[in-house]
Amino acid sequence: xxxxxxxxxxxxxxxxxxxxxxxxxxxxxxARLLFTQSCxxxxxxxxxxxxYLFGRGLGGDQDREKARDVYQxxxxxxxxxxxxxxxxxxxDAGSTxxxxxxxxxxxxxxxxxxxxxxxxxx
Length: 122
Fold this sequence. Notes:
By secondary structure, the protein is mainly alpha-helical. 70% of the residues lie in helices and 0% in strands. α5 runs antiparallel to α6.
């Protein structure tokens, strides 16, 4: 995940901003909690980060099912990077048809990396 390059005051800011700060400082447990709050409130960027943390087991146990759920939520709301990540989860699980579906959606939306991944599974 890219870093924001800016730090916010830890006593102010949205849960998403504070989550990014925690993430950038590798405080993944705090980031997971903050991104959960922000994702639950409808911030799809936070859901994307949260899926990454769950998928990698950063800040807590690895949980690919939760990663899939939050990536799906964000993908359904048009966050194409989450669609690409969802495709990768399905590819890793051996569900090629599902992987293709999500890589195609992200590729069609302009996520170049998904186009490369799509070529690799077709």
